[in-house]
Amino acid sequence: MQKRHFLHATALAVLALGATAAVAAEDTFKIGLILPMTGQQASTGRQIEAAARLYMAQNGDTVGGKKVELIVKDDTSIPDVTKRMAQELVVNDKVNVLAGFGITPSALATAPIATQSKTPLVVMAAATSSITQASPYIVRTSFTLPQAAVSMADWAPKNGIKKVVTLVSDYGPGLDAEKFFVERLLFNGGQVTESLRVPMRNPDFAPFLQKVRDLKPDALFVFVPSGAGAAVMKQFLERGMDKAGIRLIGTGDVTDDDQLNDMGDGALGVVTSHHYSTAHPSLVNKKFVEAFQKANKGMRPNFMAVGGYDGMRVIYEALKVTKGQGGGDALLAAMKGQIFESPRGPMFIDAQTRDVVQNIYLRKVQKQDGQLYNVEFDVIKDVKDPGKNK
Ligand code: DHB
């Protein structure tokens, strides 16, 4: 009798526990943030995680009646790992949204999971144009290489740069940068004497830069992913390319704010085009940079951080509107068309393409208060991804 009673009580307790867990799951909104936290792209993960945590600290973790939970996974920037982690996050953790994606191959590998599970996937870093076409559930808050490269190809020939050699990382974003820069430069009457591609993993820039020195162009146009810029700059200067009269230009990835201040005065005068600079002179950005540095031992936020911060905003606003009802489709619909002032300036998520429309700035490395910054000196407003018209 007593034993039966005990069994009964246990069963009830188990039931009650199950019910609590179910209620808790319903009250929770989970964000699966997959980032490269180790390896070659680790700075991307470090920046985006810090920005996501800052956004949550500033905006609370209760949104639309739900408790927001951030689950961070390190994919080491290996696309198969990214995909497996996304699958586990969707199936086991039942995340409501996938986010992060440090490099293009990771985003592309995960796209089918977003489509199959109808889970919105917010790309905060990767920047190859075609990514948003890989799944109707992908929304992007970073940028696209065509956006940045075309603006540089418009600026260069008007500023004494006619003959250019291009040097890009040999994968999605590099190929986009090369294609759109070259096409537009030729259209503008410029010349491209050579297009060089370096391996994405463990690149050795030395032999390529030697070749560029021999070719003696007016400028070298560079795209390398975030974190690789300092190595390019070092070898560019070591070979005395600047003294040989070759200018360094590129998309802003090469003068990455995460590394710029350590590159030394040799970086002064380098002109790049990009959507975000730590030195962007707006009140919203000043507040962002201040809070980010305060929360991260003085670390300077770069363009990856701003992609993560804005990505969290897009997710939070969509959750506010939907209150977590209606599943992935409702959440996705509420992400489309969002328009707001980012630390980078005005931006919106084009409802048709789910891609970001934003200003692209021309910037020159200058010293301010003893530190190196990408100082904006011109702006091309509301740039849509030129890759979408192809
Ligand atoms: C990508 C990665 C980067 O670090 C970057 O600066 C631009 C693009 C990418 O893989 O898409």
**Bound ions, cofactors and other small molecules, one mention each:** 3,4-dihydroxybenzoic acid
Order of helices and strands: HEHEEHEHEEHEHEHEHEEHHHEEEE
Q: Which term fits the overall shape?
A: globular
Content of β-strand: 15-25%
Classification by helices and strands: alpha/beta
Q: Helix share of residues?
A: 40-55%
Largest sheet: 9 strands, mixed
Average pLDDT score: 94
How far apart are the termini? 77 Å
Number of helical regions? 11
Q: Radius of gyration, Cα only, in angstroms?
A: 23 Å
Contiguous low-pLDDT stretches (5 residues minimum) are none
Tell me how many strands there are: 15
Structure description:
The protein is an alpha/beta fold and 390 residues long. 41% of the residues lie in helices and 24% in strands. It is built from 11 helices and 15 strands. It has helices at 2-27, 42-59, 79-91, 104-117, 145-155, 172-187, 206-215, 229-238, 283-295, 303-322, 327-335, and strands at residues 28-35, 62-63, 66-74, 97-100, 121-123, 138-140, 163-169, 191-198, 219-223, 247-251, 271-274, 339-342, 345-349, 356-368, 371-383. Strands 7, 8, 9, 10, 11, 12, 13, 14 and 15 form a 9-stranded mixed β-sheet that branches. Strands 2-3-1-4-5-6 form a 6-stranded mixed β-sheet, with helices on both faces. The longest helix is centred in the first third of the chain and has 26 residues, at 2-27. The chain binds 3,4-dihydroxybenzoic acid. The site of 3,4-dihydroxybenzoic acid (DHB) has 12 residues, from α6.
